[in-house]
Amino acid sequence: MTTTNRVWRLRKRPVGELTDDVLSLEEEAIPEPGEGECLFRLNYLSLDPTNRIWMSDMDQYMPPVELGAPMRGVVCGTVVKSRNPAIKEGDIVSGLGEWADYQIGRAGFVNPLGDTGGVPVVDAFGTFAVVGPTAYFGLVDLGEPKAGETVVVSAAAGAVGSIVGQIAKIKGCRAVGLAGSDDKCRWITEELGFDAAINYKTEDVPAALKRACPDGIDIYFDNVGGDILDACLKQMNFKGRVPTCGLISQYNATGAVPGPKNYDMILMQRLKVQGFIVLDYADRYPEAIGALAGWMAEGKLKVRQDVVDGLENALQTLKKLYTGANTGKLMIRVEDV
Ligand SMILES: NC(=O)c1ccc[n+]([C@@H]2O[C@H](COP(=O)([O-])OP(=O)(O)OC[C@H]3O[C@@H](n4cnc5c(N)ncnc54)[C@H](OP(=O)(O)O)[C@@H]3O)[C@@H](O)[C@H]2O)c1
User: Fold this and answer.
1) 281 CB under 6 A from ligand 1?
2) Strand pairing partners for 275?
3) Which atom of ligand 1 lies nearest, measured to the CA of 325?
4) Cα 2 to middle of ligand 1, angstroms
5) Cα–Cα distance between 33 and 93 in angstroms, integer?
6) What span, in angstroms and rounded, lies between the C-alpha atoms of 182 and 164?
7) Are residues 18 and 148 in the same domain?
8) Contact assessment for residue 31 and residue 7, using Cβ atoms and an 8 Å cutoff
9) 245 and 145 in one domain?
């Protein structure tokens, strides 16, 4: 085992789009686990839109990463030393950690991945750690889909959105996705089974929504906020639901972001708009993972990992999320397991 670690540290709070100086990759000594902790080697690092939020000091759902501290991330790794009786050397663990080759697994922050039921570790991590449960609880719990209803989802070829549309189909709904390229639109309709897709970059979104949702929208699963939220609000049906999952169109904003222009539709159509963070459902993760794994085994749910090699490429790769250069779940691979 090498004695040198590589750690990405937060050096500057981002303003606007991510720049190369917000993080620096530094060489340091490998830490020693204390009582109740383990040391693990990184296999996969999940790259998530919320990484940009954690780097900033905007109001958020967790404390921001401190300047100078290792960058926080959702990780999967192999245990090399353990002083935690529940975790042994060689275990694959996953949870909340750092952008670092070697790191300490603190009790309550990482847990053994356990039996993945035949699902490759990369897919189990990519799907079950964050985005699958987010899609599941946001759509099933907050969206309350009923067969025959129309579900619209934005960032539909992304990690969460691609799963939301497929769960909508499993629940007997019409699934319509908005995505930023024709290739993405083809993927979600031809391979994932969405009923319709809208390229929001080239089409007139209100007109395309009218065509794709002839009976109006019952559930709009919002991943992006902004103009797409407005267009969907305008076409919501009576007592429609809007699970507010993410607002990626405004994460790089430098000034105040205008509120939705069609806010009045919440009153007129008696809409239920509810924000959620997947961590709110931590105690119900087994339910979501059970359902997702079952659908994957039945061939009803397809997942796609967008994998880039090398921890040194983490910051450049993260930028892909904000330009739409990823399809499916974006992650860094350090070493396959
Ligand atoms: N609430 C929670 O607990 C929770 C958990 C996980 C994720 N999220 C949120 O869910 C959303 C999706 O996350 P993800 O991990 O699945 O990422 P993702 O969808 O795989 O990647 C982000 C996608 O957003 C789209 N996008 C970027 N800028 C946009 C813009 N200005 N307008 C419209 N679309 C834009 C891009 O696709 P296009 O090519 O289609 O533009 C990009 O591929 C994010 O808002 C994230 O913060 C929330």
Assistant:
1) no
2) 244
3) 43
4) 36
5) 15
6) 19
7) no
8) no
9) yes
- For residue range 52-104, list pLDDT tens digits in order: 999 999 999 999 999 999 999 999 999 999 999 999 999 999 999 999 999 99
The residue range of the domain holding 192 is: 131-279
Find out whether the beta carbon of 49 lies less than 6 Å from any atom of ligand 1.
yes
Phi, psi of 302 (to 5 degrees): -105, 140
Are 43 and 334 spatial neighbours (Cβ–Cβ below 8 Å)? yes
User: How far apart (Å, rounded) are the C-alpha atoms in residues 201 and 286?
Assistant: 37
* Ligand 1 neighbour 173 (Cβ under 6 A): no
Helix, strand, coil shares, percent, the chain, to 5: 30, 30, 40
Residue closest by Cα to atom 22 of ligand 1:
321
Distance 155 CA to ligand 1 centre (A): 5
Using DSSP, state whether 258 is helix, strand or coil. Answer: coil
Residues 152 and 27 in one domain: no
| Total-model pTM | 0.98
